[in-house]
Automatic annotation (TrEMBL):
Gene Ontology terms for molecular function: L-gulonate 3-dehydrogenase activity; NAD+ binding
Biological processes per GO annotation: fatty acid metabolic process
InterPro entries per record: 3-OHacyl-CoA_DH_NAD-bd, NAD(P)-bd_dom_sf
Sequence ranges assigned to domain 3-hydroxyacyl-CoA dehydrogenase NAD binding in this UniProt record: 1-97
Protein name, entry field: 3-hydroxyacyl-CoA dehydrogenase NAD binding domain-containing protein
UniProt-listed PANTHER family: 3-HYDROXYACYL-COA DEHYDROGENASE FAMILY PROTEIN (PTHR48075), LAMBDA-CRYSTALLIN HOMOLOG (PTHR48075:SF1)
Transmembrane segments: none
Lineage: Eukaryota, Metazoa, Chordata, Craniata, Vertebrata
SUPFAM superfamilies: NAD(P)-binding Rossmann-fold domains
Length: 119
């Protein structure tokens, strides 16, 4: 899923998808900041859900962080990890939810320090 960063829009989409997908389909969001518990809680297929947040542009920086919901099955993370490797990305697994995810928090810290250097 790659719709705008609007929680209600994303939840509506995942609720629709949840009603039509089978038990082997991975449901993934490219959200850059919305936590999986906010996106996927209450879904029947929550074990198949995770966030796969790419660095932009993904063709230039092939890094993607995988952020599972607390109920995401390890096999879902493994399948997504393998797919990301297959398409040339370098996936990083987060083992728990972190506000802002890891990449954004590191990026903001670096940008903040860069501004301090300029001042």
């Amino acid at each position: 899923e790659c719709v705008p960063e609007n929680l209600e829009l994303k939840k509506q989409l995942f609720a629709q998808l949840d009603g039509i997908v089978g038990d082997q389909v991975v449901l993934s969001s490219s959200s850059s900041c919305l936590l999986p518990t906010r996106l996927f809680s209450g879904l029947v297929h929550v074990k198949q859900c995770l966030v796969a947040h790419p660095v932009n542009p993904p063709y230039y920086v092939p890094l993607v962080e995988l952020v599972p919901h607390p109920e995401t099955a390890p096999a879902t993370v493994d399948r997504t990890y393998a797919l990301m490797r297959k398409i040339g990305q370098s996936p990083v697994r987060l083992t728990k939810e972190v506000d802002g995810f890891a990449l954004n928090r590191l990026q903001y810290a670096i940008i903040s320090e860069a501004w301090r250097l300029v001042e």
